[in-house]
Amino acid sequence: MADEQLAPPVVVAMKGHPGSGKSTAARAIAAALRCPLLDKDDVRDCTLALETVAASGALNELSYAVLWRVAERQVQLGLSVVIDSPLSHRAHLDALTRLPGAVVVIVECHPGDKEEWRRRLEKRGAAVANGGGGDGWHKPKTWADLQRLVEGYQGCTDYEIGDVPRIVVDTTDPTVDAEAIAAKVVGFIRSHLACGQ
Fold it and tell me: In whole angstroms, what is the distance from residue 18 CA to residue 140 CA?
């Protein structure tokens, strides 16, 4: 698939809570497809200097607006993209499905092993807390932080996706690495595109 140009362009939209393995899977998928990876956290990390003068929610939404604009430009150029974001609100999915000329595919990262998920999240949080710089300053650092975040969503992350193709992957399965997840996703995309033609 890496040597083929996807037609129409595909927007691979990652979905899942923080620490669920989205970024690792997204990197592997983007490498397998040889397409740009757009990470919402890359944009959000750059807003640290504005945090004291703007509302956190506004900066988060600005991060999404920038991400959607960059994705739109890539699709206009005929490129497929992988978007690494939680896709936590239906409005985020709606923004992607409105991109003209693109097929949107959701890759939902669902960690089957909650303890492994917790371990990974807290390991990442400890790295940020111990001088990991500005990157990730806005992400939950502990399991309790994640639980508060999920409660704050008030169930909005569990929304109906309609007819958008979706594949769910277990990112904590010890027998499946990121490259195997990427291969599974690429196969799913190929199958979906073949059925649509």
Answer: 7
Identify the CA nearest to 26 among candidates 182, 159, 143: 182
Cα–Cα dist 115/121, whole Å: 10
Lookup: tokens for 31? 């490498």
Report the CATH number that the domain containing residue 175 is assigned in CATH. 3.40.50.300
Domain enclosing residue 55, as ranges: 10-113+156-190
In a domain, 135, yes or no: no
pLDDT per residue over 40-76, tens digit each? 888 877 776 676 666 667 777 888 888 999 999 999 9
Cα distance between residue 122 and residue 146, in whole Å: 10
**pTM of the full structure:** 0.84
- Domain count along the chain: 1
